[in-house]
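Hey everyone, long-time lurker, first post.

I ran two proteins through the pipeline my lab uses and got sequence/structure pairs for each. Pasting them in order. The first:
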Amino acid sequence: MKESAVHRTIDGIWRIESAKIIAGLARMVRDVGLAEDLAQEALIIALEKWPETGIPDNPGAWLMTTAKRRAIDHLRRNKLRDRKYEELGWEIERQHEPDWDEALDDPIGDDLLRLIFTTCHPVLSAEARVALTLRLLGGLTTEDIASAFLVPVPTVAQRIVRAKRTLAAARVPFEVPPKTELAERLSSVLEVIYLMFNEGYAASSGGSVLRPLLCEEALRLGRTLAEIVPEEPEVHGLVALMEIQSSRFRARVSPNGEPILLMDQNRALWDYLLIRRGLAAIERAERLGRVFGPYLIQASIAACHASARTASETDWVRISALYDALSQTAPSPVVELNRAVALSMAFGPEVGLDIVDALLQEPSLQNYHLLPSVRGDFLMKLDRKQEACSEFKRAAALARNEKERALLLKRASECAVQ
């Protein structure tokens, strides 16, 4: 195998194995930043050796073994062996050569869970949580993250560095939080994964509607979390939501990159395997017998759309009821805007316009382009074309995504000539 091919293979292996390796190291050294450095050292060694020796039969175990040996060397060099060995306990002291296969296989689930809860700790800002999570759990480079969010590489690098320093300064323990804190911390984890997916599904800026890499990483993290904490219905709810939303990727964008609204999509292009996976995740959550939370309610809304064979068969009355439940469970101006859309489809645009007009003075929506966009749509349906044209132009001025802006300007021009 050519050296370039080996490097591509190593890159693929790293994306799959890096989170487990960093998690295992973090358990040893109790420092997320140091754990990543040690894992990177193991990667560098692999890049140097594997082109000559070939890729090992179990590359993940090889990387873990190498990284843990580097960790032990680090502890010894810094004269911290006694204290650190006390933390590690008999696991290392009991033998001259640790059983690396056991270290790789046995605690991985717990270690990954600890790492997820650490990188998504509420002490960090939302932007820092996303950047650090993508870096350590998503296996993305700083350049990948910067490209995904269309921000300068130094900005992302600073966020990651500050996040590591903040975790160290706050002495955030590398552990699954106690039951008294679990709900709050799990909510933070789900929020980060949800934010990552949404940015990939509807890019807030730039020249593309979708950023599939972000969606894929968010879905992978969600699936991992669902395996680790299978008793949490909201985890299954978020996974279900992401599975069903991901099913629309091929139908969501036209050949020229223009976004296609849900009601106009070619449903034959939807991925029904992903839809079935999403529906199965909802069933798993329902079997747990708990009250529906916001992610499970949103997944149920997505399921309504996915279950309709045509746009005209969509059960808007049920969707409206689900949005009523969501507005009670997780009230927000954006939820209220979405509820207005559902009610307008079920009971007429006048109903939706009344709700939207009540949101016009909401401070958090003053620069939110979807507010005038939705209002423009209602006005068009009510044959108030001149007002609709003004709303679409205002929405286009606020939109940061180029494709979305072009679509809004197109809608403005269409209502102007009618």
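...and the second, right after it:
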Amino acid sequence: MESAIMDTGDCQPLYHAIRDYYEGMNMRIDQQIPMLLVERQALNEAIEGEKHGLHHMPETRGLCLSEEQTVTSILRRPRIERRGLVGLRTQPHKLTRKCEVTAILVLYGLPRLLTGAILAHELMHGWLRLNDYRNLKPEVEEGICQVLSHMWLESEVIIPGARNMPSSSTPSSSTNWSIGSTSMPSTSSSSSRTSTKKGGKSSVENKLGEFFMHQIAHDASPSYGGGYRSAMAAVNKYGLRRTLDHIRWTGTFPE
């Protein structure tokens, strides 16, 4: 409980620190996306309301809400015959607007580092949607979102004997976080450094962070775990920017 975040106001400094973290990697999120801490019931109701079919974990702890609507459009015009209109073909067509991200919801009462990891993941969903990454497979979208979650945790957790070194749970021995002309900040912003409410990072919280990183790296699910490992391997090899560019144009990770 020493670092549990219990309400929306309590979470705002952490949320803004993670937005700053994104900006530090040339991934500025211009839209002011509301962030709310909610109870599990509210989260479940929001999931039911989302119709875009994104994959969710068995226990969902965060959600990026968006506005979109699917309508039936005409794919091929009909022919006029004696019996009426024939040959009409339709297809579902998704209508969206540019600023489609409406809110980020996170389950309340979780430890600060877990709350932050969820926020980093959900903000990446928002960044992808606001930058026109469309119709990605679950393993691609969830995988790259988990990479950003792991990266943020790695910037927060002090691993004994490995300061400023990649986590041992990453697929390769060297991590290339460069995006554009700016590299990933090696430390978190000042607003997020004091992790407990009383200030200072405790050894318990540090171990929690290592555990959360281990959970991401060793997740058994195809979308979150398999997707993360494929995404991380691509980021390690090509860097984050080239990986994101490849996803934009192909919908897949570079080999």
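Reply from user beta_strand_b:
Welcome! Quick read of the second one: The beta strands are 4-5, 35-38, 62-76, 79-81, 84-86, 89-107, 110-111. The CA atoms of residues 24 and 185 lie 7 Å apart.
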